[in-house]
User: Fold Tyrosine--tRNA ligase from Rhynchospora pubera.
Amino acid sequence: MKTRQISLRSKDGNIAFDFRFTENVIISRSQVTTLKPFFHMAAVAMAMAASRTLFLSHPNPSRTFLLSTSTSSKTFFLARASSASTASPSLEPTPPPSPSLKSKHVVEILQERGLVESITSENLKSCTNLKAYCGFDPTAESLHLGNLIGLVVLSWFKRCGHVAVALVGGATGRVGDPSGKSAERPELDAETLEKNCASINTLVKSILARNKVQSVEPGFGRDSVLILDNYDWWKNVTLLDFLRDVGRFARVGTMMAKESVKKRLTSEDGMSYTEFTYQLLQGYDFLYLFQNMGVNVQIGGSDQWGNITAGTELIRKILQAEGAYGLTFPLLLKSDGTKFGKSEGGAIWLNPSMLSPYKFYQYFFSVPDVDVIRFLKILTFLSIEEIDALEQDMKKPGYIPNTVQKILAEEVTRFVHGEEGLMEALNATEALRPGAETELDAKTIEGIAKDVPSCTLAYDKVLNCTLIDLVVLTGLMASKSAVRRLLKQGGLYLNNVRIDAEEKTIEASDIIDGKVLLLSAGKKNKMVIRIE
Assistant:
């Protein structure tokens, strides 16, 4: 049998792969074509005219490869296929593969989930080997729910085999982004900024590190996250350097036309020169990352469009280069147009030291039906097919209320806080559910004490005290008559056990591990009592 040989180069242009084929080779994507025998590069070029990525299968799995081509040249790229791709090699025609993450561009995935507001060029949809960055200003020790979409979109780039870059604004945080703000941000001292940057760096790293690559574009094979601080390159730039190297390329008319500037100029307080120049600082960040690290996509909320395009404009003017793109996603809003991410207690923080996983979980569990499906698409990585199925389930007569909310809360809590944080939230939820059969212990109750009202009482004040008196003493309810009415209605609980007897007194056996009690007035009003 005659042996044929083909040599192809990898993406780095240095390593040549040699193939010797003694049998037919199958090239397949949307359909299967059999070549007898396959040894002409012309055949590859013809096949690739219809498909940029091909699968070269061979009976020996070690000789099975993924072949792709650059959209801008006639260059062929090669990567060894995964074991999953070669588990059942066959020369027989196979059915067309079902649509999957592998066959979709990251922008296509984001669009079908409602995560794209605008892009600077349609060419982005055909680009491979992307490095996408999102900036986070250190205005607090933690990111909040408004930053969550940025982390989700970065994760989608990462899941599709691209490189995700999180940029902490150690420098720009000293100025403050005016986008979406009605007044100038309060100035933070250097020590606070440094502390905030370190905390956000740790938080972002922990969130993005949990997301593993699920599908890889040919030639990538990377599971990469870079976390940078723009103070590292701004600290050595003088004002004269900035005016000479950047300022002379900026047109004041263009800067004035940015939406973030126009809104502030018409406000009562106006806009300071410092804030006015912010768009150039962020624009230079993109230029620096593009020039020095190959970062070619900047993502941000829709209010960042002006800052992002400032960057693409600087790259074109200063570097005279193309290939820098911007992508914005919608702000996280409820169906009524109000911001999603604010509660009565303030911002919904992502750092567990500022908001417990339990409270974070509960916030998503309380999402109304009208918003829950949209949030599943935006904030989770469930497939569109799974989400559509859940939407249909909600319309069925036997649907149990809040079933889909529970899935949303679990998925988002797992993404932000990991499996351990999710389990903490689920355990606390169960512990705080009146009538729950879960056996309570002091550690569980102490764990939720920071999330519900609590007080400390002496042991001798609690022991033998009537439950009605104790409820009033702790401030859980205002009067004994109100407690009696609730008790008669079946809404008073001690350690999740419903109490029906007015004469109930606290016994030593009621005090969990001799340390705590949990009172519940209805489903929502709780009180943790620490016993001294």
About this structure: Residues 1-99, 213-221 have pLDDT under 50 and may be disordered. The longest helix spans residues 403-431. Residues 145 and 207 are 13 Å apart (CA to CA). The longest strand covers residues 525-531.
